[in-house]
Every structure is written in structure tokens, then in C-alpha cells.
Description:
nine-stranded mixed beta sheet; rod-shaped
Amino acid sequence: MRRLSNDCRAQRPGRLRLLLRRLRGLARPALLASLGVVVAGATVIALVISGTPQRLFADAARAIEDAAADAGFVVTTVTVEGRVHEDRDAILAATGLRLGQPMLAVSPEMLRRRLEELPWVERATVYRRLPGHVHLALTERTPFAVWQNSGSFAVIDREGRVITRDGVERFAHLPHVVGEGAAETAAALLDLLDRHPDVGKRVVAIVRVNQRRWNLRLVSGADVLLPEGHEAAAIARLAELHRDTGVLDRALKVVDLRFADRLVLRPAADAAPVPAPGSERGRRG
């Protein structure tokens, strides 16, 4: 007899489902939203405390979502803030959002993780604005340079992380860094060149040599060889030489600054002999 009674109780609709059915007939959606939140919170707490199996927990959550959706709490609008380079369709595809989806089924944390897997997205924040608005706020990575290595090109950020290998030609105005290990170490050298604009504006690429030191490739086609670990002093020296002698505008193949006690200049093919900047400066004095 006790077993029969238990079976009968198991076939009756749960109290939560009966309550939700009654709520569907209530007046305004705003009231339903408030009651739904209260019911949802109380249900979750009760299920957690009682150790209710995961399946029953999921069933209760779905019942709440369905009730809210029946009252009009579904996704009707998706807006994106902060998008500059990332493809709009890729953003929506990553979220998996669709119109008519129950708003309570939208997980801001899950959407955030998905968005931050996109190549351009540094950080993402997702807002649910009832009754049906989902707002995606993005902070994109800042393109810093174009990196060339082994014949391939990529747009990188300041830390040297590859952002994208597609559409690199759109970023031809960015500094050009070349070679293995160049991406991760380029920022410090480019900052030095910014401090010496007379040198920097004549540089078309910085080239990493054996992952140890740098060459500067000039607009003229000349290479400036910098000493390992002493780039700041060498570039300051080069800027001073150029102010005094215009050395960067000469027909040169190589300007070798690797030696602290001397400067080595190699003229371009068929170019006139290059006077020594030191002696020329001495005559001016």
C-alpha cells in the first residue's frame, strides 16, 4: 500500500512545474521576471542543499527557462561594441546566439570564453539586458607590426603574439620586422627608433640576425649593423653622425656600428668613395 502511494505521487506534476504553469497566466512580463528569479534562486538553493541529482537540477532549470521564454524573454537583439578588425559573422558564430533563444539559457561566462578564443579579441564582456537584449563588449588586440619569417607574413601585437595571417597587406603601414625571434623582441628596438625620428623614418625593416642582434634596413637599401646588447648607444651615435654628416642619405651598402672604437662604411656598387664621417666632422670643428 505504501508503495502504491509513492508511485502515485511520482506521477503527479511537481510543485515547481505547477507553480510555473500558474505564473504563465499572470499579468505583466516584468512581474513574471521578478517571480521567475525568486523561484529560480530558491530552487537552485534547495536542490544544492538537498543533493538533488544533476538530471533533476537540469530539468528544473529548463522549466524555468521555458516559462520565461513563454512570457517573451527570448533573444531579440544582439549588439557588438568595440569591433574594429574581427569579422562580425565570426563573432556571432562564436557565440552561437540565435534569435528566439531563451534569455535565461544565455550564459555570459560561456560566451565570454568563446569570444576570447577569436584571434582579434583580447577581452570580452557579455551583458544580458532583459527582456531580450544581449550586448557584447569587446577589446581587440592592437596591431603593432608585420612579422616576416621563412617567407610567411603575420600581423603581431606588441608582445609578439600572432593576431592573424590573413589580409596582412592591409597593415603594410606598420613597422616590418624580419627573422626568427624578431616578433617577441621587436618592441624595444622600435621604441628606440621612435626616440630618434631622423633615423626611424629612414628604416623600412628591422632584421633579427641569428636571434642575437639587429640590422636596420634603410630606405636606401643600406644595412645598419647594430651591436648585440648596445642598441641604444649605437642608434644615438648613428643619429648624431647623421646630423653632422648626412650619412644615412649616402649611397652606402653597409653602416657597421658593431665596434665601439670605429665606424665601418661600405659604399654601394659603383658609388663614389665614401669620406670618413670622423674626419669630415673634424674639419668643421
